[in-house]
Sequence to fold (377 residues):
Amino acid sequence: MTIKQNASARQKWKSSMSDRNRFNNIMHYKPVDRCFNMEFGYWPEVFQQWQIFRDNNITTNEAANAFLGFDKSEILFSSPFLNPPFERRVIEERDDTIIIMNEDGLLAEVPKNGRGSSIPHFIKPSIVTPDDWKKCKQERIRRDDLARHVNIDDILKNHSNDRDYPLGIWCGSMIGVVRNILTLEGLAYAVYDYPAMVEDMVETCCVIAEDYLDQILGVIDFDFAVGWEDICFKNGPIVSMDFFENVVVPRYKRINKRLKANGIDVWYADCDGDVRPILPLLLESGINCLFPNEVNGSGHPAELLNEYGKELRIMGGFDKMKLAEGPEAIKNYMETLIPLVERGGYIPFCDHLCPPNVKQQDYLYYLDLKEQMFGTQ
Fold:
């Protein structure tokens, strides 16, 4: 497939509705002209491997979205939770790896070969004890930090209320960012060794999110809310159900109260793995959309949509493993999604970043097939 430099690889799907109206109608089970066309993104290696990206200097997910003609949606994010972050620096060099201090204050062992998608081996967090956490809060999570001030005028210049695309508002992370700071092992110990510290970390996450929302809600009309947790693996959540229900859920409910008061009734949480054990609590909290519905953790999206009905929405759920198996597997799986697209409350795309074992020609076939099945008016 030969494409001129800086040209678009694909035309946007034909439509008779704005992207904003289409997204909102799908999320509220109302009629639409066609499916909302989007993808989660790509591993860094994909930008290096696929000729279509290399030849056209496409190196980011944002550039790929425009290049491949996807529908537009945007999210307003707050300032980083840790501000300033820890200084990223090399601590030690070994034969094939280096030891770094990352932005979350973790000592991590990473390969020298530059594989951007490799999961680091975390050695030690900077925050272990309540004293460590107290120092971190004082230095890096100040509520009066000027960086946490929202410049409404600048935002309105870029996102008017009469825009034609859906706009989301960031609601933070109640426990995922805590996992990042403490490491998985560190969180597992801290929940028992320092429960008051962990709850204060969750409370701090909530307060920082509330401060951000209080500045911007009511000034700009948002179409959906966004959170990030990543606290589930293939076998379920990494924290106990009691902890999640008693510590995390009350904070979600506080945020949801603000969202509902401002007309926002679609809220998705980005969480991989098997979210099924905590899904009833997510729904109770106001989080009513799953993203990206990792199939090998949470199962085929039809299972959850059939179980929870119109109380639930799902974005994602196309098994990335099927993408790697070639056209026949792609077509067979795509056909299982037809009833979900037709019923509403569902937007199909790869159930995580597209991995580098997917061939370019198979991915383009996947995009062609998705348009053929779901892009006609």
